[in-house]
Amino acid sequence: MKTSNSYTTIAYLFLAPALILMGVLTFWPVGYNTYLAFQDYSIADGSSTWNNFANFKYIAHEDLFWSALKNSLLYLLIVPVIQLAALVVAKMVNNKLPGMTLFRALFYIPVITSISIAGVVWANVYKYDGVLTWLLQSLGILHDQVNWLGEPSIALYMLMIFTFWKGIGYYMVLYLAGLQAIPSEVEEAAILDGANAFQRFWKITVPMVKPTILLCTLLSTIAAIKVYLEVIVLTKGQADTYTALFYVYDQAFRNYNFGRAAAAGVVVTFFCVLLAVIQFRMFGDDKK
Amino acid sequence: MKLKKMLAVGAVVFGFASVYAQADTELEFWTMNLAPKFNDYFNKSVADFNKANPGLTAKWVDMNWDQIQPKLIASIAAGNPPALVNFNVPWVHDFAAQGNILPVDQYMGAAKNNYSVGAIKDVTVNGKVYAFPWYNSVSIIAYNKDILAKAGVKTAPKNFDEFVNDGKQITAKTGVPAYAPKLGNFVGWFYYAGLPVVENGKAVFNSPKHVAFVQKFADLYKAGVMPKDVFKVEFEQEIAAYNSGKIAMMTTAPQALKRTETDAKDIYAKTGVAKFPVDAGKMAFGAWLMDFVIPKGTKDPAAAGKLGVFLTNDQSQVAFSKATETTFPSTKKGNLDPYFQAGAKSADPVEAGRAAAAASMDNARTLTIPPGVLPDEAAMTKKLQDEIQDAVEGRKPVKAALDEAVAAWNEKLKK
């Protein structure tokens, strides 16, 4: 007979491999980063000294950081759009019609495509004489050539469309898993009661996949605030598409100012946590 | 007993080692990213040096560029730095200011006159030379003869104003954008034009001359002489645009022509080559000098200097350029070698390109602000580039854009 004490020990033993990896690769870097945010770090000899919040004071007065943070927060606009679209698409491919597997696969291909390759392709879509201009011109919607990634007023939204294309399949798969957990009887009963498709979607599907919605919005919010790869491959921060993590990268690897980069990273993390809390309040289970 | 024995053996071994070290000074030199492609060149070079210098043993170590600085700092701290290290120009200024590398004037001696003027200027900090200039490259112009003929442009531009006017003429007559020069480092363009960027700790790039210079680019952009996405153009994009006939001229490193040769044979057949013209700055565009420095604390700096002179003399540099096929010597005579000059009258663009670049090498300067001048280089460069882009693409008057960038720079420089 095992005591509950040894039971706990064994449980921790099983957790240990994962915990050690997470500790080394996640918790330690996060902790050290936070520590660095309050330090002057010298890359030459690895020494660091307390600097009385100088890094935070610096970025507080840095226009570039605030405009970068503004762009990262603006990027959140993509979250509701991509979530609703992914749920609708998941709903559509969640039936037993022939060929559905193909559609599911098609939506998922962008997810597994390397972002650098997708970036090259989309750079040609967005080129001023590229595919998008050509398409809109042949439809008669557009007259002049538009430098899609060069105009500060639209470039960031063009990146969002890229993110949408790249990410929708990922959330679709998560929603699909959520949808398949809904027993078909519920929907059948609603049909018998005369509920139309729209009503069934809002009254049955959405409430029943609420946990998945929470997970997906959370993931997509964090991804949006951390947007960086899209910017690197498509605009390099030109045309008002400079984002908060781009600032972090520039400070760390172009200025070698790791303390300031860490401080900026901490500010970004703060916004991530803040939004996560809000989302848990909105979509989480109310355990009153 | 055992311990005593071990100590004794240790002392003997150590004694031998020190005798050995005295007998033969090992000169380790580090290069960046050259192995294994150039193993043959370096093995031969090391053998030649060792043969000619009894008592000295050169040892080649290659590493990735991002390892050089941390390893060097660690080795200086540990008291056993290598004899020579391959640096770029910004690093030379950085380390010279820190006092972590030695001035090399005395070790260079008369050999100083062998190097091109621009190269020596690149590695001079506060009047002292801090590195042995090594390989370099420079931009040339490659042009589509058909398009230039159609536009009535007979010869390649000889100065920057001709470059501007020819561009306008080409686009006006043919409708093809004339060129897509890389604008990603506009500080370099100011230097090229002989215009100062920072003077006495203050940003000064909003003078009428600066405004007029940037205005030229704005006019070119407006007239369609540069493609709409010129600010996104880098090495690859420029080659692609030229190879597909979308621009009339390429303003790039000579090795780009090799890509035209393999990827766009019909364009290559009608390609002409010329020097990239110099402007008031008297600087050839597109250079990035590599060099060797002597770290502080190296055991025998004079011997290190000997190796430095050897690795960067005419003969070594020409041999290295032949091995790379894409780089150029930083010595005056090196660029006069038949290997480079043979192409001067050649109809083959790659050979002509080599000759054109070699002819520009004496003016080759690495056009960057030395590290340490800008307190927040990433943010300041970004500000300048954003304002320049707004000005050139016509979203803002040039004067207003430069004023704003200067104000932002000065606020940071003040701190």
From TrEMBL, chain A:
Descriptive protein name: Sugar ABC transporter permease
The ABC transmembrane type-1 domain sits at 69-279
A Pfam family matched in the record: BPD_transp_1
Q: Which family does it belong to?
A: Belongs to the binding-protein-dependent transport system permease family.
Q: Which organism is it from?
A: Silvimonas amylolytica
Q: Which PROSITE patterns match?
A: ABC_TM1
**Mostly located where?**
membrane
The organism sits in which domain of life?
Answer: Bacteria
Which UniProt keywords are given for this protein, alphabetically ordered? Cell membrane, Membrane, Transmembrane, Transmembrane helix, Transport
Record lineage: Bacteria, Pseudomonadati, Pseudomonadota, Betaproteobacteria, Neisseriales
Tell me where in or outside the cell this protein is found.
Cell membrane
Automatic annotation (TrEMBL), chain B:
Name this polypeptide is given: Sugar ABC transporter substrate-binding protein
Query: One Pfam family this chain carries?
Result: SBP_bac_8
Residues of the signal sequence? Answer: 1-23
Keywords of the record, alphabetical order, are:
Signal
**Species, as recorded:** Silvimonas amylolytica
Asked if the Swiss-Prot or TrEMBL record annotates the protein with the keyword Signal, the reply is: yes
Q: What is the lineage of its organism?
A: Bacteria, Pseudomonadati, Pseudomonadota, Betaproteobacteria, Neisseriales
Listed CDD domains: PBP2_TMBP_like
Where does this one sit in the cell?
Periplasm
- Protein family according to the UniProt entry: Belongs to the bacterial solute-binding protein 1 family.
